[in-house]
Amino acid sequence: MKQLEVQIMGQSYLLGCPVGGEQRLLEAVEKVDTAMCRIRDAGKVKARDRIAVLAALNLAFDVADRAAPPAMNAATFVQPDATVTGLRNLAEDVRLAQLMVRLDQALADDGRLL
User: Secondary structure of 6-30 in the HEC alphabet?
Assistant: First the structure.
C-alpha cells in the first residue's frame, strides 16, 4: 500500500492506495477538489461537511447517469408502463428532497467546520 499526500480545498490529506493506483487516485482527488471548490465558490454553503456531502451527491449522480442506459426516443419506442415509470421517478425525487431536508436539519446545528 502506497501513501500519497493530496490537497482538497486547500486541506492536506494522507491517502492510501494500491501500488499502481496512484494516477486513478489523483484523478479522483482532482474531481472531488473541483466539485467541492465549485460549490464553495458559489458562496451559498460555507461548512466543509455540507460542501463534501453536496459534492458527493453530485458525483454520485454523475456516475449513475453514466451507468444508466441511453434514453429511447418516444417516437420509436413507447413503454406500456410509462405512467408507472413516471410515478416511480417522482417518488425517487420526493425521497431525495426529503433526504436533503434531513441532511440540512442534521448539519444545521453543527456550526463547525471540519
Answer: EEECCEEEEEEECCCCHHHHHHHHH
